[in-house]
Amino acid sequence: MYISKSKGWPGLLLAACVMVSACKTPASLPNSSANVQSASKPNIIIILTDDMGFSDIGTFGGNFVPTPNIDRLAKSGLKITHYYSAAPICSPSRTGLLTGMYPARWNFSTYLDNKQHNKDAEQADFLDPSAPTMAKFFKSAGYATGHFGKWHMGGGRDVTNAPGFEKYGFDEHVSTYESPDPEPALTATDWIWSYEDSVQRWDRSRYFVDKTLDFMQRHKGQPCFVNLWPDDVHTPWVPRHGTEFEGKFPMNPQEEEAFKLVLQEYDKQIGRLLDGLKATGLDKNTIVIFTSDNGPLPSFRGSRAAGMRGSKLSLYEGGTRMPFAVTWPGHIAAGTTDDQSVLTGVDMLPTLTKIAGINLPASYHGDGIDRSSVFLGTPSPRGKDMFWEYGRNDIAFKYPKGRDKSPNLAVRSGNWKLLMNNDGTKVQLFNIATDKNETKDVAAANPQVVATLKPKLMAWWKEMPRLK
């Protein structure tokens, strides 16, 4: 998350809904686990966009600018309309994705900043290097592992003791200021971005795509696991020089025209990635996942989240429900949309290791579930509740303001979603199947549902560890 030096803060379903439209999957799709096991191990690229709203891109209903390349990725594979991040903000969301565990288990509940901020927020300064990670499991299975892009799980500001990338299982890395080892080309002034950087703000996504393609080409013949985590489309939106916005930055983050130009450039770079994979033949056995870490901010009156309530920093749908597309030629049917299945970021570790034929150790106790069958053509509703946390006190969790500010805990069970504060106050209940925009609190009309979900959510909260 980008934090102003002067102010310390930016300018700022869990859809188990069984929808009427079913997943359209060809009957001939090779989707058995035996088929997966007999194939060579696939490359895996996880594109984790920064602060992208559910409907920023065309294939998810966006109309800001055409996004033909991201749309092309979705059309070549499976689009899932009910995918949720592990948190409504960057650091815990990334932790949940990487570990397959609720970020609260590692004392992450908001973005990482300086040590005082982290202490005030009752959270750790960095991800414990003993944490299980996808990179560790894939590396142990013979994969080359790389991280190219934003990290934000430790390092930067006065946190100088964050463990290096190798401690989390990565062979190679190129990252930004908010990491234990910032790339000099991106951090000329020891800050998030500067005109003095040799790789300018508008060229960062290109830089990370180039690093990804180079890494995979050098390891051709060895399966690769890659985090491609750009810091687009996070503010500040700095379009390429030569546009009408030149010389206006830092600018008001509400400038929608600047966002459009950044999104347009980002789409081009996703196209370069897809074209590069195809040119080298790597596309034939590469799983590419495209999603976002959390909801948008600013949300332009909810238009970046398909009208759903909430934004980044909120446990309402707009803060956690993300665009999601996955492609794998010959295994995932092209042009498939799944409106039924419900997935979350913590599911990615058990799902991808299963697809790659990697057996997880008995000592690993994740919070996600294997959803490989969904990827391979069998849609299904979720059979396990999902939980979220955002904020452990009133010190560091004052945003967003107004109706988008949610209670700090949430659970999704079937079609029901219950939110409340960790002291048991401000209980809200929504039926996401009939009210995905969370406009009508039906807690008073459904006391039995509240009586079931409230203690379940409180028990989960009390199970989470606390910093000592």
Structure at a glance:
By secondary structure, the protein is of the alpha/beta class. The protein is 24% helix and 13% strand.
The end-to-end span amounts to: 26 Å
Query: What class do helices, strands and sheet pairing give?
Result: alpha/beta
Approximately how much beta-strand content do the residues carry? 5-15%
SSE pattern, N- to C-terminal = HEHEEHHHEEHEHEHEEEEHHEEEEH
CATH architecture title of the largest domain: 3-Layer(aba) Sandwich
Quote the CATH topology of the largest domain. Alkaline Phosphatase, subunit A
Q: Write down the Rg.
A: 21 Å
CATH superfamily of the largest domain: Alkaline Phosphatase, subunit A
The major sheet is characterized as: 8 strands, mixed
- Tell me the domain tally: 2
Strand order of the largest sheet: 5-4-6-1-7-9-2-10
Number of strands: 15
Write down the overall geometry: globular
Which secondary structure elements does this structure contain, and how are they paired or packed?
Blueprint lengths: L32 H6 L4 E7 L18 H8 L2 E3 L2 E2 L5 H10 L15 H6 L13 H7 L3 E6 L22 E4 L28 H15 L5 E6 L26 H25 L5 E7 L24 H4 E2 L2 E3 L8 E3 L4 E2 L3 H8 L16 H4 L10 E4 L19 E5 L2 E5 L7 E4 L15 H17 L5
Parallel strand pairs: 1-6, 1-7, 2-10, 3-11, 4-5, 4-6
Antiparallel strand pairs: 2-9, 3-8, 7-9, 12-13, 13-14, 14-15
Question: What features would you highlight for this structure?
Answer:
468 residues, alpha/beta, Alkaline Phosphatase, subunit A, Arylsulfatase, C-terminal domain, 2 domains, eight-stranded mixed sheet, four-stranded antiparallel sheet, 13% strand
